[in-house]
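Write out the 3D structure for:
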Amino acid sequence: MDPKNVKPDAGELKSSDSLADESKAAELPGATGEIPEPIVEKKIVQTRTAPAVDESRFAQVSRRELLKVVPVLALGAFAIPSFQDSLLKRGLGFSDWASTQLFRRGHLAPTFADAELTPFEKFPINGYDVEDPGVIFENWTLTVSGAVQKPGDYTLAQIQSLPRTRQNTRHVCVEGWDVIGRFGGARLSDFLNMIGADTSARFLSVACADDYYESLDMATALHPQTLLCYEMYDQPLTRKHGAPLRLNVPTKVGYKQAKYLTDLKVTNVLERVGYWEDQGYSEFYGL
């Protein structure tokens, strides 16, 4: 009998496909009649913990940031007109104080060989008001006052009677130029000794025939290179260079080296500091 014409009996085993379907159905939840537990999706939440603050490091960073803004604040202050004068005066005052602390009375300014001298005819003439205030040499005296034992009027001959010192030193102008010149005269310290000056006083002030005025701190006045100068290049001082007597102070800038001296005072209190200083320039201005 041809098998294809035989119909399967209803009681025969189910096909393999049917069995596979029933097997899969048995594996599904609830296939056994039990109620399955609900499926809950779990989410993992990550939290971040702030790192501990290193206080010392924080302080360092804060200081660095502060230092960055200090120049900006300072420039801002200078931009305010009402603060400018005060800040400049404080800055100059601090600079002068620091220079005073560093000044050494026994420390000499550089000296130079004759071959290094600026020729006399090329030595600049820098006047305050007029090149020649018209001093009458025959009548000239230096009037001394203040904390001294022997006040009075001193002639050029009396000053020239003291030991003479000649030195080749640099003259530095605040305008930016400098030259090397040869200067001669009496040490100011010797003259102060002659007049019995109180060298514990703080200052020495001078006035000039052209109305210029200046002052020196006592340590500078006693410096061995500070001269009452009456010679340049081994010749009598010329009128244009301050005759008959000027200061030569190689440890100071040029405007401290007054010309045409007429008055000298030893004092603890300055009524006025100097012509340029009273207009805002440095009082000490050491080199």
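The CA atoms of residues 90 and 96 lie 10 Å apart.
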